[in-house]
Description:
The chain is an alpha+beta fold. It has helices spanning 5-8, 88-100, 152-161, 167-182, and strands spanning 11-20, 25-32, 38-45, 49-56, 59-67, 72-76, 79-81, 102-104, 108-114, 123-129, 132-134, 146-150. It has 4 helices and 12 strands, in the order αβββββββαβββββαα.
Amino acid sequence: MNENSSKLEEKTTRIEPIYEGKIINLQIEHVQLPDGQTSTREVVKHPGAVAVLALRNGKMLAVEQYRKAMNRTLVEIPAGKLDAGEQPLDAAVRELEEETGYRASELLHVHSFYTSPGFADEIIHLYATDQQSAGTLQPDEDEFLELMELTLEEAKDMIADGRIRDAKTIMAVYVWERYERAGSFVL
């Protein structure tokens, strides 16, 4: 926390739960602003998630799936939410195997980032690997996926034509591009 953050902090005076769901909770936070005024903030609480940039034989493992909130299919890297008490690395190992059928022998933490800090506390932990072995494909019972293997150019074309539109996958493609140039997943 930098020294200016205390000048900008909004102090929560009351929390009003609105909705508790399977994936998210919604609450209204009554806050005191830095100038002493009061306001409210609608906040989505999320357990956090992981995403995996998995390269196999020079191609990125991706899944195509229908996203109801967007009413369309999207191409994304393997990802999923953290289970209660689960460590991000364990979740990344689990999600890669569940969604692709591959097991990583090594996963490197690349970066953690907030998805929509204006209203949600969701954080995604991005991992990368270029070493996998066959595992067991085990999607969740309500999850329907098609596995894809994309070249870097195909992935970039899918960003350009809108088939890849989510931030985690776009970030992963740029991490991959850097990996090709610099030989490192680390940003």
